[in-house]
Amino acid sequence: MLSPKIFEERALLYKVLSLALYTPSDLESQNELKTLLPAVRQVSLVKMDPETIDKFVDAWITAWDSPQGDLKEEYTRLFVNDYPELKCPPFETYWATGERTIYGHNYDSLLRIYREAGLDRAPDVGLPLEHVALELELMYYLVASSTRQPEYLCLQEKLFREHIEKWADGYSRCLEENAKLENYRATARLLREFVASERAFFEEPKFCV
């Protein structure tokens, strides 16, 4: 039987990654990330390199101590608009197909997961459902709810295998190579390492039968 603590740690990591990849202009999200960072250092059951975690936490603390305009400018360059084009579009379709578009062939699958989880849509944040931050937020919701809703275990596996796994490695490597600020490079490394851990987590047992 899997320990409830493993689900708590997995939910925490999905949550902080979602917040880190969301706009720094949202002060509520930034404050939530600040609140959660100390707990990230306590992760023990999810197989992560402590150095990767420490660098992630330290880099975000440093970013907040720097002029906030720098953080917002970097977010815009990486996630919203860069000339002549975004180097690392934060959307699943690009990394799954190479097409610079959204709402690709796998979008219906993502919608089904939302509906099976009892969600009509993502929070009204003005982002496409396949934005990387929203997919990570959805996974956080599924993991955090799975102790009360065992059927969410299968939805987690579907979301990971059909969606997150398809974009995380390529996107994280692109982000690490192109980010100018260390907090985003550290986020990319944490994402890639956590996804490797999740890949092992979903090997056995299989939750969708």
Which features characterize this protein?
66% helix; globular; single chain; TorD-like; mainly alpha; 209 residues
How would you describe what is shown here?
It comes from Thermofilum adornatum 1505. This is Cytoplasmic chaperone TorD family protein. Pfam families: Nitrate_red_del. Keywords: Chaperone. This protein is an all-alpha fold and 209 residues long. It has a single domain (4-201), classed as TorD-like. The protein is 66% helix and 0% strand. It is built from nine helices and no strands. Helix 6 packs across helix 8.
Instruction: Count structural domains.
Output: 1
**How do the SSEs run, as a string of H and E?**
HHHHHHHHH
Largest sheet: none
- According to CATH, the homologous superfamily is TorD-like
Predict the CATH topology: TorD-like
- For this structure, the quaternary state is single chain
Helix proportion range: 55-70%
| CATH architecture assignment name | Orthogonal Bundle
CATH class: Mainly Alpha
Number of strands: 0
**What is the average per-residue confidence, as pLDDT, rounded to a whole number?**
91
Q: Looking at the structure, what is the overall shape? A: globular
Radius of gyration: 16 Å
Percent in strands? under 5%
Kindly name the structural category: mainly alpha
- Distance from N terminus to C terminus (CA atoms, Å) equals 17 Å
- The number of helical segments is 9
Spans where pLDDT lies below 50 across 5 or more residues? none
